[in-house]
Amino acid sequence: MHHRYLLFLICTILLFACEKEISSIEELIDANLNATSNNNWEGIVSQSASYNIKTLINGSVVNDENTVLSQKFPGLQKKVSSKKDTITKIILTKEEESKLIKFTKGTFFGISRIPKEEIQISPVLDLKKKSAEYGLIDSIWNNQPVFFANSKKNNDSYIFSKQSKMLIAYLAVSQYGKSTLTFEDYREVGGYQLSYRQKLDIPDAGYSQEFIYQNRRINPEFPKNHFQLNDEWKALTKGSEVPSFELPMAFDENKMVSTQDLKGKVTLIDFWATWCKPCLEELPTIKEQYNIYKSRGFEVVSISIDKDVKRLNSFLNKNPFPWKLSLYSDGEFNSELAKSFQLVAIPKPILVDENGNIIAMDAELTNGKLEVVLKNIFSSKSNSSL
Hints:
With 386 residues, the chain is an alpha+beta fold. 22% of the residues lie in helices and 42% in strands. It has 7 helices and 20 strands. It has helices at 2-18, 25-37, 123-129, 277-293, 309-318, 336-340, 369-384, and strands spanning 46-57, 60-72, 76-83, 86-94, 97-104, 107-114, 134-141, 144-151, 157-161, 167-174, 177-189, 192-202, 207-218, 246-249, 252-258, 266-272, 298-304, 324-327, 348-352, 358-361. The strands form 3 sheets. It has a 13-stranded antiparallel sheet with strand order 6-5-4-3-2-1-13-12-11-10-9-8-7, covered by helices on one side.
């Protein structure tokens, strides 16, 4: 018995002695990819999954829906969300953009172009592409020994279990505060180790999301038109006439703003709300561009969907708008106005030419793109007048 114990002890010591010590990001990534797939992630051409997403704000559940995910690498993704078997939205990603298709009671409501969603097989493969930007730290996280892959230029970190080499968390800083995305409950799927439970926490915003997977599949086949928009889903497009509207001005219902006011001017129609942080982040750019081009025929019409008029008043007292403002909170996203403008999400900017036709909209006008679009428009006008 003593000899057996001694033999076991010697084998254990030799095993640890022979284990390769991790001393670089590259070695850590290779160890993870070997542990999760025998380093054969290149063999994945498609992936599908179904999962439940529960969204909480300050501990209270505000949304609970199921999602079916389809991915065909490198550039196609489809996410179909539903509640009680009734479809609520589809996010379709192709090429350089994503489209958000909204449904009301299962019936098509509208389409909005949004910034491209990230399509990835594994977060570790993304880290591998940019590994030179990260440094390795041997540390402790949640009372367990871990490796930190810390960015040298951004405030993000990948955290790996020192024992299993699995990715267990991703730390980042978003516009809403510091965020933590955890990966748990790894299971074998077609020869790969995949996480079946994930959680996103943003404490500063009191926001969290829980992802519970029911199933995941590697290399499934999809129908031929799986990543195409249905013919009956018609979106507002460039060149089409802007929907007709007539709305009372905020705080003075005797004055109206309507489609007729757009004639003869390049006009930005901007749907927004004081509670929408991305909307507020766009306001400085809109004000800057308004001041540059207002003397050359540029106009802005802001349409707020705030329900809390006191909050809107307080905001405007501190941040007055030098252009036309209307308040349209009746029905918010489910109103007839929202339906005609396909108000799927905000901010929703729509740029209209002098004849009332749409020039650009949605993600084409956010994150600094408005400046570029207006510069091109008014530069061409200057050239044509010479």
